[in-house]
Amino acid sequence: MMRLETEINGTPVAAEVESRTLLVEFLRDQCRLTGTHVGCDTSQCGACVVHLDGVAVKSCALLAIQCQGRKVTTIEGLAEGETLHPMQQAFHEHHALQCGFCTPGMIMSALDMVARHEGDLDERTVREELEGNICRCTGYENIVKAILDAAEMMRP
Amino acid sequence: MNKFDYACPTSLAETLGLLRDGDEPMLLAGGQTLVPTMKQGLAAPDLLIDLNAVSELMDLAVVDGEVRVGAMCRHAAVAASPVVREKIPGLADLAAMIGDAQVRNRGTIGGSVANNDPAADYPAALLALGATIRTDRRDISADAFFVDLFETALEPGEFIREVGFPACSSCAYLKFRQPASRFAIVGVFVARHRHGVRVAVTGAGAAGVFRWTEAEAALDGNFARRTLSGLALEPDQMLSDIHAGGAYRAHLVRVLTERLVETLGADGARSGKK
Ligand SMILES: Cc1cc2nc3c(=O)[nH]c(=O)nc-3n(C[C@H](O)[C@H](O)[C@H](O)COP(=O)(O)OP(=O)(O)OC[C@H]3O[C@@H](n4cnc5c(N)ncnc54)[C@H](O)[C@@H]3O)c2cc1C
Ligand code: FES
Ligand code: FES
Fold this sequence. Notes:
A: 156 residues; alpha+beta; Ubiquitin-like (UB roll); DNA polymerase, domain 1; 2 domains; 5 helices; globular; B: 274 residues; Uridine Diphospho-n-acetylenolpyruvylglucosamine Reductase, domain 2; Enolase-like, domain 1; 11 helices; disordered C terminus; binds flavin-adenine dinucleotide; binds FE2/S2 (inorganic) cluster
């Protein structure tokens, strides 16, 4: 076992982990943060996307111990109390989900793309950027609309 | 996943020591290939040496006219680098086409080149641009580096420090993707150098990435699309799988090369500046 000291959603966390524990296993099984999903476990679907130091990564392809001294943000870290993050609110308003399984990964990826493009997005870019996030329900239409809308709302 | 010891060195010297003393050590770069491979039990190192804190491997700079990309430069960093965009635009375009955004946020040039997946993108760029792979002990030319499917000239315990790309007159990359994995069914990189044209092909060759020397010779004579029309690759020297047969791949190589020649012949905007 190794000692892991990291920060999750703004809170310092210290825990014992095995070197082979994946970040997604640590989040779901040890931290009980089950908003991060495992869709494929083969790095294809994007349901497990979280932020490591603000950058979107697939938590099924990262070891928990690699987060030593770093900051992890999950879907649970976005809302302020009862107030949803603008990206969550946009998904809600545009009905950008059906079963909701892909949604946490979609939202974490969406925030990364808004940050990287400094909010300057168009439909084509959003679709390209969503290549690593698979949705089996919606057909993506409303997901794209929600992200474009949120990017507009989040402009400084 | 098997159990392993984990080390996270912060310098090259420390990395070298760990590699020397480890029983069966493996390097962890972006982990986008290695972690899934370990999950499947296809790799089982005793010691995993994580390179993510070795800052010496993350430099990206122009030295003596050569663009030097540290082994731990991530695909996203290469795609967004103003230096790469200015000097070797085809390389920036290629990096932006690898996998998806999350893979590009983690995956590295060193990991991709060391892995030498027959459908990976970077090997085509290294070969066409005549890059040099610098390891902890020597310089290896791209022509000598890529040996066979998933096989390189690296010796056990040898690791890549950086890849050096010489300046070229102009270059571009095109890829026909496997839509699910986003890897190349065929990817072609064409580079115009002062001393000649180089055409490198990934995704298609039965022995991995290769240079299409007949096309190079023809284009050296006349850099025009029609020069290629009589040329054909042997389908039985191509990969053939459920995604595409050998004849189809051979055809795609020519089509993509023709398109690249058209782009590079006409469009000065794609030229890398000296
Ligand atoms: C969903 C998905 C889609 C992808 N699509 C594409 C694609 O379209 N095109 C493409 O080219 N690739 C694609 N990839 C692969 C991706 O580019 C990987 O990042 C890359 O192949 C491996 O790089 P890495 O940094 O993740 O290396 P790792 O997975 O960490 O390591 C790979 C291997 O290289 C060794 N290694 C790492 N660094 C060094 C070094 N400095 N010196 C010596 N050996 C080293 C490791 O020990 C290991 O054996 C995809 C991957 C995924 C998961
Ligand atoms: S569970 Fe990580 S990408 Fe699917
Ligand atoms: S809403 Fe069901 S997978 Fe996307």
